[in-house]
Amino acid sequence: MGARPNFVKIAPILNIYKKNNSDYVLVHTGQHYDKNMSDDFFADLSMPKPDYFLGVGSGTHASQTAKIMIKFEEICLKTRPKLVVVPGDVNSTLACALVCSKLHIPIAHVEAGLRSFDKKMPEEINRVLTDRISDILFVTEKSGLVNLDKEGISSDKIHFVGNTMIDSLVKYLDRATSLKEWENSSLTKNNYCLLTMHRPSNVDDVKNIEKVFDVIKFFSDEINFILPAHPRLKKTITSLDPSRPENLLIINPLPYIKFLSLLYGARIVVTDSGGVQEESTFLKIPCITLRENTERPVTIDHGTNHLTGLNIKLITKTFDNILKGNFKTSRKIKFWDGNSSQKIYEILEGYQA
Ligand code: UD1
Asked: How far does residue 32's CA lie from ligand 1's centre (Å)?
């Protein structure tokens, strides 16, 4: 694993390995390396220190992926794992999977089968290729089963187990709610909007940030916004200095439980993250997703999610409707119940190559 969302997806599986004294080697590629993007998550999620830290850091897609491959291959050759588990859709996921496929080490992919059908997203390339070379595919929602079937992946390899990110949420929700993180920013529960933005297509161009800021200004008489800013967004805001709305508080990225607390207390969530779409659906909080598509359609069909892209009129209209109480509520989603990691553990332990 290597990036912030990976930690949340892997921690509950790792905790079952620890509880059962089963053998594992933990590798952190170092794709995310800031304290608040990495170490704080390890602490919150009670994760052990990685056995190997590759320290690859930031770079272009090719150089980041290549650096991970070179260093991860050395570890595989040294430790000769029975199988390798990779979560999610980040560059670390694909890089490690590629290494294993060439060394004939079985690969298990946690969060397989999701598809946005948008090849401009690096994550989509990472997902499709990782699934193609994986031996065990753990699926979070039904759309994943349909997608993998269409791609001709044998059903023997596929296991519909649910969502390990929800396992983490279920485990830490009580702590998150009692933390009342909104109070630290002088906000009132159920009376603020939580905003997150980090996708290159949204945050690398300051015009897109200005569009979202205009929406925030439009609702200045009605609601305050809080934005824990990803380093990529911070870079654009610092260098290009868009005019900031008065009803927007920009803070540093938060550790997992504090973020969960802020999410739990929010009236509305506006995001371009994958995981936040799922978490807000589980918590029944209305969510506006600043993307044209989602690889997590269950959050639209069964959940609280609305896709708006960066269409200002649509964002404003949807936001206004939600403020007026016209929003979707979510239904129960199959296997999003806190037990997915246990199922994964049992399948991995029983696996014979
Ligand atoms: C990566 C994932 C994305 C995931 C996101 C979660 C890929 C292709 N993208 O995007 O799917 O949703 O993580 O956050 O793998 N940076 C820091 N400190 C850090 C990490 C990053 O300052 O600890 C800065 C660097 O300037 C870097 C930029 O953020 O250039 C982007 O980081 P990178 O890991 O390349 O991708 P993310 O945008 O975080």
From this structure: 6
Whether the pTM exceeds 0.85: the reply is yes
Q: To the nearest whole percent, how much of the chain has pLDDT over 90?
A: 98
What is the Cα–Cα distance from 315 to 289, expressed in whole angstroms? 9
Low-confidence ranges of the chain (pLDDT < 70): none
Per the annotation, the verdict on 198 as an active-site residue is yes
Q: How many residues can be counted in the chain?
A: 353
Beta carbons within 8 Å of 201's beta carbon, 6+ residues apart? 120, 121, 208
Ligand 1 atom 19 nearest Cα: 32
- Say if ligand 1 is within 6 A of residue 33 CB: yes
Query: Ligand 1 within 6 A of 59 CB?
Result: no
Closest listed residue to residue 323, CA positions, set 192, 183, 189 = 192
124 lines ligand 1 (CB under 6 A): no
- Which of 28, 109, 198, 230 is catalytic? The answer is 198
Question: Is 132 within 8 Å of 138 (Cβ atoms)?
Answer: no
